[in-house]
TrEMBL record:
GO terms for molecular function: catalytic activity. CDD domains: RT_nLTR_like. This is Reverse transcriptase domain-containing protein. PANTHER family: REVERSE TRANSCRIPTASE DOMAIN-CONTAINING PROTEIN, REVERSE TRANSCRIPTASE-LIKE PROTEIN WITH RNA-DIRECTED DNA POLYMERASE DOMAIN. Residues 517-790 form the Reverse transcriptase domain. The lineage of its organism: Eukaryota, Metazoa, Chordata, Craniata, Vertebrata. It comes from the Eukaryota. InterPro entries: DNA/RNA_pol_sf (IPR043502), Endo/exonu/phosph_ase_sf (IPR036691), Endo/exonuclease/phosphatase (IPR005135), RT_dom (IPR000477). Signal peptide: none annotated. It comes from Nothobranchius furzeri (Turquoise killifish). PROSITE patterns: RT_POL (PS50878).
Amino acid sequence: MRIVSYNSRGLRLGNGAGDRARRIVVDKLLEDVDILCLQETMLPKQNLDRLNSFHCNFFGAGESTTDLSSGIIQGRIPGGVAILWHKDYDPFISVVRLNVDWCIAVKIVMDEKVFMILNIYMPYESHQNEDEYLAKLGFLSSFISQCEFNCVFIVGDMNADISDTRSTFGQHLIQFCVNNNLVLTSKERLPADSHTYVSEAWHSTSWLDHCICTEDAHECISRVEILYSLATTDHIPVSLVVNCESLPVLLQHQSPSHTEKLTWAKVSVEDIRKYYLLSDCSLRSVSVHKETLQCRDVNCEHMEHRLHLCTLYQNIVDSLIIASEFLCQKGATKFKPLPGWSEHAYALHAESRAAYKVWAAAGKPKSGSILESKKAANVKFKNAVRYIKRNEQTMRANSLANKLKNNDVSEFWKELKRSCISKQLLPASINGVSGDKNIVEAWRNHFSRIFNCVNSERFNLGNINYNHGMIVRADEVRLAIEKMSLNKACGPDQLSAEHMKYASCRAQVLLSLCFTGFLKHGILPDHMLSVLLVPIVKEKTGKISCIDNYRPIAMASVLSKVFEHILLERLQNFITTTENQFGFKGKLSTDLCIYALKETVSKYMRHNTSVFMCFLDASKAFDRVNHQKLFIKLQNRGVPSYLVRILHFWYSHQLMQVKWGTEVSEPFSVSNGVRQGGILSPVLFNLYLDELSVTLNASKTGCLVGDRLVNHLIYADDLVLMSPYSAGLQQLLRACAKYGEQFDILFNPKKSVVMIAATKGDLKLNFPSFNLTNQVLEVVSKVKYLGHILRSDLCDDEDIKRQCGKLYMQANTLARNFGMCSDPVKVSLFRSFCTPLYTAHLWCNYSKVVMKKLQVAYQDAFRILMKLPRWTSASHMFVVSNIPTFHALLRLFMYKFICRLSLSANAVVRALPSLTYSDTRYSSVLFKHWNNCLYGL
């Protein structure tokens, strides 16, 4: 398939030389293209139908900026886009309207291969148009992130000269591709000296017309060329040839019709009471083997005792499942009511059914009053259904508004979440393997290699002694259940957290007896250890059929999570970690870790000292935890033997399966790694990495805050090293490499980078190279750390630009999904999704121009969602809607963060603003900025 993009500068049928020249180019292109994307058509809305008659072999669709019926039009009609496609492709093409006048799309479905072409026309480069340009890039980001297809081609006149490093729009376009993991195909496939525009006035050249693709779409393009032979006007056509045979096939997997579904969110209070009573009745029949439960031999190996405990566990699960059966609905017969059904159609549906029954009981007469009554009832019901379908979006919006008005916040967010769920499409092949059974086997082999890649020696604990901690009380089970998150997917045993929460208290007592037996005997049932892995895509714009573009979601038994919560309470006092670890700790977050890093580096730079930083990447760190070495660490911490034993049994007997579509693989064993998403996994991983933190602290090299050494910070598996000496950083790198080799942590030198925060006097110095596992590390000027963009000069402009793009994307996403909602609903959505500006309180070193752009983006985001003109007064609209203005929001973030700093118990965080440890608070640029913003000091 050949696709051509061309800025026609008008499809008018005038007799001017320019019109004739452009018409000649378009006619020439239509001779051998399949799809022609045109920009600047300059057609009014009333003439868009001419696109279907422009050429006898082509159909077309377009968007216009001008409606002739709106008034007298002065001058030429600006902009406009159109797509023409050959009539042979018409059965496969459907037009996608995006409700904007600068972009139009077509969806092409050919033999289960689906892709989309977007034709766009962006504003020309000028300072006045920059905010509009960024807003439109945000619109595209939003569309791509929500598109259910992974093959997207974006072509058109983007007015971004990527050949000129001084082009602001060119830099914006390149950054847009980086942020969204898109490929700028025109840059990748064409020479660097290419051009698509020749100025008629100055005869200078620019590269303004481009093609941007997702990775899968990029791989399917066999040729890209600029048609210089048709350069009769200022713009030059760009052609690309797509090999449709190489496009990935996406399939939708339906759940089997016989599966039963239980949606607790739709269960009534009466049904919950009934479930409580039924569960109580069902659990009464669960027999308890007293001899097994009264056994005090903690080294007991009686197989009967183990069998009794496993049977008790399974009986509890079965009892809860049986008690909830009346709540289940068959997947095939489940009726999903439309919004407004209860108000407009429910009663009419009942009348229609009653009239039908009367007519059927009368022998189904073909005439008479009974038949007429039935027809009349049917007509009323069908009219109501049509009305609901026509006004579905409005009624859904009204439903959200009513929930918000009635202060039913929980139901409001539940309905909002349901409305955003899209159908899951899976590729027909993964790494060249096709067929669901073959694919699920490929996944099984892939994950089996990952979770069995570390050589681990056998761990032998020996006999243990009795410990009172083995006794699990019913109130412990109750507290553990209360910590469980609701509205989550079921585990392999089909139990959900709601099964436990709404069950009879008898379940808590039985589980306490069961868990006590497990701890005494050091065993767990197979069903409790079963884990289901579901691969999900990391990057939608990446290669959908590449096995490395997926990460597994682990679905474990709900009762195993309850048990993990109970074990965590017993482990917490033994597995404390150093203050350098910020991950998975209460009242610590990523922004506190970023704050500690920036303030430490800033302190040294203020004292005219450069700081060397290394951001280490640990490949699959959670998956490579050596079980035997983990258990030894637990023993060294003084963890009671019965806890080490139960964890050893758990990890050594754990079985995993992979689910792909409707297929489930055979189980496989696991010999390394902690399950991501598990309750215990974060604290166990922190413990596994803690000895490295202790080693780094003992190295006596690095940055000092007062008398406290701060040479590294850790958030989960994200590790940053810092030292004011190059030799000191290399010493820290050697310590990390040694620890990684000893404990099977694979630090990746290709993804690990060094950044040097150099003072003005050191900028021209040639610093030594840094090595990790005998490989030289790349030195960069900026890095993304915990979602925050850090620059070597500590300037915050890049991170502010990141937030600017995110704001536009969020606003466009909300406007597309909830544009029909009432104003109160939109305001609530804006407050929830657009006001949280990540790490905004840490910005202090920025240009006023960049911060002004973020302020404009914040205001435009609200206007986009509320469908207000760009000239609407910002202060007025925020006051009316009770939304904080931009600067008020920033001050709120600063105040809250300062309060968190004063309450933080972390020694590293407390040392930075504390007058006892250092003078940072007096000299800090960040603190001065906060004082100026909050108090005008």
